[in-house]
Design a protein that fits this description.
Blueprint (H helix, E strand, L loop, with lengths): L23 H21 L7 H23 L2 H39 L20 H32 L2 H15 L3 H16 L6 H25 L3 H9 L4 H28 L4 H6 L18 H10 L5 H33 L6
Helix pairs in contact: 1-2, 2-3, 3-12, 4-7, 4-9, 4-11, 5-7, 6-7, 7-9, 8-9, 9-12, 11-12
Length: 360
């Protein structure tokens, strides 16, 4: 009788053999950034300036190459190709973030001291020359002008999108789609000039008021609202509409109770995109709303300052103490970024609470 071989055998899992651990790409990325950023620091010791952006870009490029080579040696050509494409996509994302982070960091670094000085958010520029003053009149003007523009644009854009998706057929729908496409490419200065011509016919030449700025901004907002809402409404499954019709619900009520609640998250995001698109416009507001150093809460009378125009005037028309004007311009730009960030945060909250709950 043959005795059983008691020698232990090593069992190899063919699914995990020749496979890099999940943490390896992060180690490669950290090492690549350490090499390139460290090299940038060493080269910048002589001049006193470190090129962080170049170091990060070089680090991402080194990571992509190193990740591919290591995967090719360990996992083979097929998996190496998969990691190469994944690294290229991730690298493109990082490269796209660099300008954004640099922009926000630069504006915050230059504008934060004036933004937090205690007077910038609580005072206007009335009777202020040189140091002091603030942008309260511009912040109020921006909120009023943009708010009225939203009141004009959102109902018109949303109802147009509903018509194009749910009812539109024939030449009328094609004509509306064509004009929306044309309006999407209209330069902002053209919207300002057209609005000024309209209000000049109604109120006379030289008219300046906040509501005119709202009308000009609505020309730019409407096509964005229409396009974004139209695409979101088209994504609502037809099965939901057909189920509602099968229960005898009329079409208008199906739209109100089924289609819009289902697409409310995407519509809200589209509306916030349209607001972000116009809140920083300078040219149309400079033409039709003008600029002033005083508070104005009435959009239907007199000139009204806005943050983009405030930044523009502070930068191009500095007084004898140009340093304070430039500081206020940076702070105004930072205020715009903060407002847009808050609006997007509010949109996320609205989307979270009002979007349909899919879980049971």
């Amino acid at each position: 009788m043959t005795a059983l071989d008691s020698t232990p055998r090593t069992v190899t899992n063919s699914y995990t053999a020749g496979k890099l651990p999940s943490w390896m790409p992060w180690v490669i990325l950290a090492g690549s950034l350490a090499i390139t950023v460290g090299s940038s620091i060493i080269m910048g010791l002589g001049t006193g300036e470190v090129n962080w952006i170049l170091g990060v870009i070089a680090g991402v490029a080194l990571f992509i190459l190193s990740n591919w080579v290591i995967a090719l040696l360990v996992e083979g050509g097929r998996q190496a190709t998969n990691r190469l494409i994944t690294s290229l996509v991730s690298g493109a994302f990082v490269l796209a973030l660099i300008p954004l982070i640099w922009l926000v960091g630069t504006v915050a670094a230059n504008g934060m001291p004036t933004f937090l000085n205690g007077t910038f958010l609580s005072q206007s520029m009335r009777n202020v020359v040189g140091e002091g003053g603030g942008a309260l009149h511009a912040i109020v003007g921006t909120l009023i002008i943009t708010g009225f523009a939203a009141l004009i644009s959102i109902p018109i854009g949303l109802m147009t999108a509903i018509y194009l998706v749910e009812y539109g057929t024939g030449k009328l729908a094609r004509g509306i789609t064509f004009f929306v496409d044309v309006m999407t490419g209209i330069p902002s200065i053209v919207a300002g000039l057209a609005t000024y011509a309209l209000f000049a016919l109604l109120f006379g030449e030289g008219v300046r008021m906040g509501f005119a700025g709202s009308v000009a901004l609505s020309i730019l907002m409407i096509p964005v609202v229409v396009r974004s809402s139209e695409e979101i409404i088209r994504l609502v499954p037809n099965e939901l509409r057909e189920a509602s019709y099968a229960l005898g619900v009329p079409k208008w009520r199906t739209i109100v109770k089924v289609v819009l609640p289902t697409s409310i998250a995407g519509i809200t995001t589209g509306v916030m995109l349209s607001i972000s698109r116009v809140i920083g416009e300078t040219a149309p507001l400079l033409i039709v709303a003008g600029f002033t150093a005083s508070m104005n809460y009435n959009p239907f009378s007199e000139r009204m300052m806005s943050l983009p125009v405030f930044v523009y005037t502070q930068y191009v028309s500095p007084g004898t103490d140009a340093e304070f004007y430039i500081q206020r311009a940076w702070a105004g730009a930072l205020t715009l970024i903060v407002i847009v960030a808050l609006l997007n945060a509010i949109a996320r909250v609205v989307s979270h609470f009002f979007s349909p709950k899919l879980g049971r």
